[in-house]
UniProtKB/TrEMBL annotation:
Residues 58-144 form the PPIase FKBP-type domain. It comes from the Bacteria. It is an enzyme of class 5 (isomerase). SUPFAM superfamilies: FKBP-like. Its EC number is 5.2.1.8. This is Peptidyl-prolyl cis-trans isomerase. It comes from Faecalibacter bovis. InterPro entries: PPIase_dom_sf (IPR046357), PPIase_FKBP_dom (IPR001179), PPIase_FKBP_N (IPR000774).
Length: 144
């Protein structure tokens, strides 16, 4: 077996491990209090419900967010950087956009994003491999 075949086999094993661990994590999260599961697979809990307007896909939003894998390892966090981030909603992954569209300004939600509406087979970092489920806490600060 050559190097390419070994790397392919290793990636397939990692995909299957991440996929199965993600399914188990999502099944447990769905049992928590006040978890809403959408048809897309996006899951969320409202931490704080704001009273501002909700964004549309055409909007750019200002958020604080904290993203981890299912083991709690941080892969991206504006909270850690202490600087809110702004994004056009049309430029983020499907699960992130779908979630933020549900949030009135001033809200904080916890989202669990399955890989099918996340990064799919892409390996984003050592903390977020292919077919990883992501966990985000997002504070929607403003619509820009």
């Amino acid at each position: 077996m050559g190097v390419a075949e070994l790397l392919f086999k290793r990636k397939q094993e990692l995909i299957e491990k991440n996929r199965l661990e993600g399914i188990a994590f999502r099944e447990e999260f769905a049992k928590e209090e006040n978890v809403i599961v959408l048809p897309s697979g996006l899951m969320y809990q409202v931490i704080t419900m704001g009273e501002g307007p909700k964004p549309t896909m055409a909007d750019k939003v200002l958020c604080h967010y904290h993203g981890t894998n299912i083991h709690g390892e941080v892969f991206d966090s504006s909270v850690r950087r202490k600087v809110p981030a702004s994004f056009p909603l049309e430029n983020v992954i499907k699960g992130w956009a779908e979630g933020v569209l549900l949030m009135p300004v001033g809200s904080k939600f916890k989202f669990v994003i399955p890989p099918e509406i996340g990064y799919k087979e892409r390996e984003i970092s050592k903390e977020l491999g292919p077919y990883s489920t992501m966990v985000f806490e997002i504070d929607l600060l403003a619509i820009l």
